[in-house]
Amino acid sequence: MFIYDSVAVDNVLTIEEMVWMQADTQFFQEEIDLYDKSALEKKLNNLLNEEIQSVEDLEQWLLKESALMEEIQEILSGVYIAFNRYNDDENIKKRYEYHQQDIMPMLKTYSHKLNKKFYDNEFRKQLDQDKYGLLIRSRVNAIELYREENIPLEIKEDHLHNEYFEITGSLTIDWEGEEKTIPQMKTYLMSKERHVREKAWKKVWQEVQVHEERLNDIMTELITLRHQIAQNAGFDNYRDYMFKKYERFDYTPEECFRFHEAVEEAVVPMVTEIQKKHHKQIGVERYRPWDTQAIPAGQEPLKPFETTEELVEGTIDVFNQLDPDFGQLIAEMRDRDLLDLESRKAKSPGGFCSDLPVTGLPFIFMNAVGTQGDLSTMVHEGGHSVHHLLSTRQQTLADYKDVPMESAELASMSMELFTLDKWDRFYEDENELKRAQKEHIEDIISFFPWAMVVDRFQHWMYENPNHTVEEREEKFMDLVKRYNYAYLDIEGVEEQIKARWLLQLHIFEVPFYYIEYAIAQLGALQMWEQYHHDPQQAISNYKKALALGSSKTLPEVYETAGIKFDFSTSKIKELMDFAQQRLRELE
Fold first, then answer.
1. Tally of CB atoms within 10 A around 468
2. Which is nearest to 362 in space by CA: 416, 419, 403, 422?
3. What sign does the CA torsion over 173, 178, 181, 184 have?
4. Separation of alpha carbons 26 and 20, rounded Å
5. Are 426 and 245 in contact (CB under 8 A)?
6. pLDDT digits (tens, 9 = 90+) for 83-135
């Protein structure tokens, strides 16, 4: 069952605070009152007690359950978005924590009861297996995982998530008398002046290191809680528990390890060559961490837009060229105030797209400062938004609208590549356009080693839950040297490098959610190859695949898209060859 997996702490809201927040958060809809727990419980009990006397009744019951869960999901998602937008707003924080402490535990309990009611119903076996087979598999999986004793542990876990976001959302740098957020420092890391880059890089990581001890403590506490959650559910380690929770039925941890090795063999040498070439372009003796984003002499930082309004209008135009529905969607989100794009203090780092099922539209959250990376992020999150549009049109059940991450990221990463040849909307100068396209392809190639570090690091942490902070740092350094810094000179800044993973929010909030990016990126490269030969067919296949939501398996979704769910060494090499060919065309 589709339930938002959020967080919790002990706080109580006053009536005045409740009224204020309901007036302040109108970007989402509140069809029910989550403050009236007895009324919510009554709705849930009505579902539990409803008589089901035929297979038709059972199908209608599933629709009623889905509608109620979407009403609840709308509010949980809306408040989650608000919390990430305003980390320093105590009223929003209290409301968010109320949901986590009071509402989520109740929902998890009722979710289990509703799953059992569905599974135990005598008419379940008469359901169309082609239509409901994956829903049944998912419900069985949830029943097997459920442990009542894990609910208070998950509340503690979520409280630690909150603290992590409060710390990272408050990180600011004093830059020549002005307060800058971490995203705002990106522009200085691209400076042609090496002393500026070095100063910016060191200031960022010095600020992170101020909080390093507490962030490491949070991670240690999370690992302890998560290991206990896994053991309570009958697993030897949390990694195996999460593979089941994420419903990774189509690949195993062992296949992830082979993926790591394949990237080391096929991609790391390519990244080294990219770095060597860049090293030569910027003309420095030693290639240091603050040099990786440097702009070569004679060039200026790519500036695709000045304001977020320009970013939005340009994205609408680009999406319209692919499909009018895509552009109309972003325009409607703009008109409904469902975009929060600019970086500011007390705003969580990163970017995401969150569905609002009652509103019928998603919300895009990001931290734009005017860089090429912001353009990539916008079209990426726009791809998630299109996925929401297409799956909602075709799927009636919330279970099937809630898509697995491997297909969710396929949607977003394919959109990045589909729009690549349309970025002239942001770059009038052909040389700048080619440079933006080239850098994007190189960034894709360079991403794979980092994805392997994040994934393999987590496998190790949860396979060895009793490790020390020192052992954790040593393991991380070993991995980044192996995958990311084979060429980079990190002498003298090892302590800062050890802290790099602390800003990877996935490790804290959504553990093991990262390998999906790499798997989906291989799928997106296949989609781009298809688009390169036949754009119309590629867009048609893309729309058909995304409309499936999670009603089909991952291999079936990928097959509908005209590609293979494949992260073998041979497939990686084939796609890296294709990417290199495209790079040569841009020289």
1. 11
2. 403
3. negative
4. 11
5. no
6. 999 988 999 999 999 999 999 999 999 999 999 999 999 999 999 999 999 99
Closest CA to 305 of 436, 177, 190, 203: 436
- Could you tell me which of 106, 112, 82, 87 has the C-alpha nearest to residue 21? 82
Q: Nearest CA to 332 among 394, 395, 382? A: 382
Q: List the structure tokens of 18.
A: 């409740």
Cα–Cα distance, 293 to 67 (Å, whole number): 47
Half-sphere exposure of 470 (CA within 13 A, CB side): 0
Q: What is the pLDDT of residue 23?
A: 38
Confidence tier at 7 by pLDDT (50, 70, 90) = very low
- What is the pLDDT, as a whole number, of residue 22? 43
Helix, strand counts (H, E) of the chain: 26, 5
Torsion sign, CA atoms 510, 515, 520, 521: positive
**SS3 annotation, 51-85:** CCCCHHHHHHHHHHHHHHHHHHHHHHHHHHHHHHH
Which distant-in-sequence residues (6+ apart) come within 8 Å of 364 by Cβ? Answer: 333, 338, 339, 340, 341, 351, 352, 353, 378, 381, 382, 384, 385
Contact criterion met (CB below 8 Å) for 172 and 345: yes
d(CA 352, CA 382): 10
Tokens of 390: 């297409």
In this structure, which amino acid lies at residue 263? V
Query: What is the per-residue pLDDT for 186?
Result: 87
pLDDT at 29: 94
CB 89 within 8 A of CB 112: no
From CA 189, how far away is CA 208, in angstroms rounded? Answer: 16
DSSP tag of 336 = T
Residue whose tokens read 């002393």 = 195
Antiparallel, parallel or unpaired: β 352-356 and 361-368 = antiparallel
Separation of alpha carbons 114 and 68, rounded Å: 12
Q: Say if residue 435 is exposed, middle or buried (CB neighbours under 10 Å; 0-12, 13-18, 19+).
A: middle
Give CA–CA dist 111/66, Å, rounded.
Answer: 11
